[in-house]
Amino acid sequence: MTAVSKWGAYVLAAFMAFMGIQKFIGDVPIFIIIEDNLAADWGLTLPFIDPMLKYATGLGELAATVILVAGLRLIGGGLSLALIGGAILAHLTVLGVYTPMSSAPDAEKSPMLFIMALVFFALSAAVTYGAFKARR
């Protein structure tokens, strides 16, 4: 495995850890926004999204971190691809590209979360591909 793939996996693991820890101790209004948008746009009332989906996503992100750091880059990269792919799908269907920067009612909206998802999706793909090629 190349050094780029190895260090890319560590950068990806750090990102996944950062995002996963936020789900448990940080201010993450995205899941409440998902609930609100589903109710407003599609008439779906799904009260389990926050906190259950938030915690499940956080656990998945922390699991991907541990798997990547343990050196199982194909599995960790694949799990990261799935989780970040879900985030991109949520942005494109329910959240929108511009999301609030905090849970304050008048919070500024920014595309930063969507851009981060795209960048780290590409990194996940590169790590997964590098791990796959190394196994062959």
Describe the structure.
By secondary structure, this protein is an all-alpha fold. The chain has one domain. It has 5 helices and 2 strands, in the order ααααββα. It has helices at residues 3-25, 30-42, 49-69, 73-95, 112-135, and strands at 99-100, 109-110. α1 packs across α5 (112-135), α3 runs antiparallel to α4 and α4 (73-95) runs antiparallel to α5. It starts with a helix and ends with a helix. It comes from Hirschia litorea.
Q: What is the count of β-strands?
A: 2
Low-confidence stretches: none
State the end-to-end distance.
Answer: 11 Å
How large is the radius of gyration?
Answer: 16 Å
What is the H/E string?
Answer: HHHHEEH
Strand content: under 5%
Characteristic terms for this protein:
single chain, mainly alpha, two-stranded antiparallel sheet, 5 helices, 2 strands, 3% strand
What is the topological layout?
Elements: H1 3-25, H2 30-42, H3 49-69, H4 73-95, E1 99-100, E2 109-110, H5 112-135
Antiparallel strand pairs: 1-2
Helix pairs in contact: 1-3, 1-5, 2-3, 3-4, 4-5
Question: What's the short version?
Answer:
With 136 residues, the protein is an all-alpha fold.
